[in-house]
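hi! just following up on the protien thing from before. the input was this:
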Amino acid sequence: MLDTASESTLIEADLVDYLGLEIRESHVKLMTIHAEDPDLGTKASSFVLTSLDHIIKYSVERALVLPKLNVSRRNYNWPKDKEKWEHLKDFPIMPVEASSVKILIGMDIFDAHLSLEVRRPPPHLKGPYGLRTPLGWSIVGMIDEESLEELSVSSCSTAVFNEEANTDCLEKFWSTE
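and the predicted 3d structure came back as:
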């Protein structure tokens, strides 16, 4: 799943185990709206992300490994409901269960997010947009009025904790005083 609100790619630990990926220690600073930014010890892994046709490949150098991804638990049966949207009727998207999402592709893999084609709803209608990315089609935006009742906003940003760089930065700051 593409996640434009995340600076880092995230992967569930059970998928890392299943694929036999190497895990290494990492540090991140969790930035929140509460201005309490703890430094967290976490794990990271690397892998190659490939399109279904094996033409597009992205090297993911530092995906954060989490026990579970916090994604919306709503399921949407696109093959059944796409008939509501003339501009999206021919989309080859299968139903997706929220529990099957094991990787959130963050903006550290920027090219995966590029919009190669955009399908907009007619100007007089509200509805979802279709985005063709290098990895295939995505549906974004409001699907139906019930979505308004379950609206959620989420964001994940990370910063690599580097004690040496932080010390240098502080020394430069204090030397200007």
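Residues 10-175 form one domain.
DSSP finds four helices and nine strands in the chain.
cheers
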